[in-house]
Amino acid sequence: xxxxxxxxxxxxxxxxxxxxxxxxxxxxxxxxxxxxxxxxxxxxxxxxxxxxxxxxxxxxxxxxxxxxxxxxxxxxxxxxxxxxxxxxxxxxxxxxxxxxxxxxxxxxxxxxxxxxxxxxxxxxxxxxxxxxxxxxxxxxxxxxxxxxxxxxxxxxxxxxxxxxxxxxxxxxxxxx
Length: 176
What we know:
Blueprint: H1 3-33, H2 39-51, H3 56-63, H4 67-79, E1 83-88, E2 91-99, H5 105-109, H6 116-125, H7 130-142, H8 146-150, H9 157-160, H10 163-169
Antiparallel strand pairs: 1-2
């Protein structure tokens, strides 16, 4: 094995660990908002808190999920009282999904203390103070092609072999 291959495998391992930790934290945050809220639906709620009212079709594009799945998750959020639907002023046939008072940012972020996994993750991320956290976030934002570089690794190339993934990372068909 080459040094580059070893480095990529180590990076893959560390990213996998980070993904598992993030999933656990998101699950805990979802349950803190409502015991019946699924993590993926919580992510949609967090997106609505951040972006404001949007059409379900826009969420479908952002999350790369079919419209039927978005519709079911929006319905779950409606049933839990966390979002509202209102007519789109630009197109009366469409509706906008927005955060309700019950799902407002204060309620989403502030329902009791952070879950234990979230507190542990915050301590690990904050190990060097706010500057370190900002540098980490900036590094991830600066390199949007990180995923396409990782897909050069043989263990990660299965994703890049699909037409959908190739289109997302801008790879020509022969470069998988």
